[in-house]
Amino acid sequence: MEVHDGAELCFPQLLNTSCRKPLTSWSVVVFLRILLSSLSVLTVALNVLVVISISHFRQLHKPTNLLLLSLSVSDFIVGLVFMPGEILRKTSCWFLGDLLCSLYIYFATIALCSSVGNIVLISVDRYVIICDPLQYPTRVTVGRVKLCIFMCWFCSSLYSSYLVKDDSLQKDTYFSCYGECALMVGHTLAFVDLILAFIAPVTVIMVLYLMVFVVAVSQARAITAVTLQHSVTVTSRKSELKAARTLGVLIAVFLMCFCPYYCVSFAGGDILNTSYGILVPCLFCFNSCLNPLIYALFYPWFRRAVKIIVTLQILQAGSREANVL
């Protein structure tokens, strides 16, 4: 790699082995850093509230909420690790070394993969409770949900370890330059990643929610036809349908935030290699920020729990038993 101006290099003393600094104006870099740093802080703060709410209040220790808790933990890591790392990678040179680069890629990949896995688990949970409600209490138990969550994170960790290992092998084979932190994988692994991390999960999600939608519509029509003497049952089914709609919004937001990255990446767009390219992968973090806001809009228990937390009533004795439902 030949250069003409040492001031353009991340490490001028290394000459031809150094990467170039991002060619972006100072004002654009400042704007991106302020915007995305604020988004990162907001993502972390909102997901901390979700984690505290579900972990603290006993009434919320239910299978569906445990899945939401797992999703919030992955969203928290996205806001804490993925977003700051992307800001640093795209708006400046990487001065933290190869070890921290590998650790960043490892934890960011775990968070993103577990987010996808948690969304799939939530889809399965909604499918069972809507399409087979009588069997839901026996088929979806707290123990089974915890096992599924563990397997989700375990598989994400294994997959991330393999990506980091392959990344190291690629860098040893095809050296680029010093001053960058990029995930380098072969074409075969990139195709496998596209299948496993996007196409397969999205297909499962879409099929499950199509079936849930059909059943939910038929149940909604049945609810309007029942008599008043079944009001308790009607209220219960309305609650389940509302939960299905809420998680449907959750998945719609997920698809809108994840699709642009994979579409651009699959098309081979060069925008991902520019400073502006940070906006595409950081839609991941925007999704992680929107999830708690969806809870706040659709779940009254979350609003009540947040009120208790911010007013410090959570520090009072017996607050774990508070009625938030």
From TrEMBL:
Superkingdom, natural source: Eukaryota
Sample GO molecular function, one term: trace-amine receptor activity
Localization per Swiss-Prot or TrEMBL: Cell membrane
Coiled-coil residue windows: none
Gene3D superfamilies listed in its UniProt record: Rhodopsin 7-helix transmembrane proteins (1.20.1070.10)
Transmembrane feature ranges: 30-54, 66-83, 103-124, 145-164, 194-217, 247-269, 275-298
Domain G-protein coupled receptors family 1 profile: 46-295
SUPFAM superfamilies xref list: Family A G protein-coupled receptor-like
PROSITE patterns: G_PROTEIN_RECEP_F1_1, G_PROTEIN_RECEP_F1_2
GO CC, any one term: plasma membrane
UniProtKB keywords: Cell membrane, G-protein coupled receptor, Membrane, Receptor, Transducer, Transmembrane, Transmembrane helix
Family to which the UniProt record says this protein belongs: Belongs to the G-protein coupled receptor 1 family.
Keyword check for Secreted: no
UniProt topology in membrane: Multi-pass membrane protein
InterPro entries for the chain: GPCR_Rhodpsn (IPR000276), GPCR_Rhodpsn_7TM (IPR017452), TAAR (IPR050569)
Principal location listed in the UniProt entry: membrane
Protein's UniProt name: G-protein coupled receptors family 1 profile domain-containing protein
Keyword Transmembrane: yes
